[in-house]
Design a protein that fits this description.
The chain is α+β, with helices and mostly antiparallel strands and 71 residues long. It has two helices and two strands. Strands 1-2 form a two-stranded antiparallel ribbon. A hairpin with a 2-residue loop joins strand 1 and strand 2. Helix 1 runs antiparallel to helix 2.
Length: 71
């Protein structure tokens, strides 16, 4: 298989997973940093459904492009 085809399949699988299961990205930031005292907070940012749909569409486009090109 060609690289665009494999990348397209990976995008389709990842997009479908996040569309069905949901999910997000967790970031950690420091809120207070005074001498030895450090307070940090974790924030969760959900992945929007339209981003998952866009990943699926882009994956389909890559699969089609990978299949159509001849080596």
């Amino acid at each position: 298989m060609r690289v665009p085809t494999l990348l397209g399949i990976a995008l389709i699988v990842a997009g479908a997973y996040f569309l069905i299961q949901g999910g997000g990205i967790t970031t950690k930031r420091e809120v207070i940093n005074v001498g030895p005292l450090q307070v940090s907070a974790e924030e969760q940012h959900p992945i929007q459904p339209w981003v998952s749909g866009l990943a699926i569409v882009a994956g389909i486009a890559l699969v089609v492009a990978g299949v159509r090109t001849k080596a």
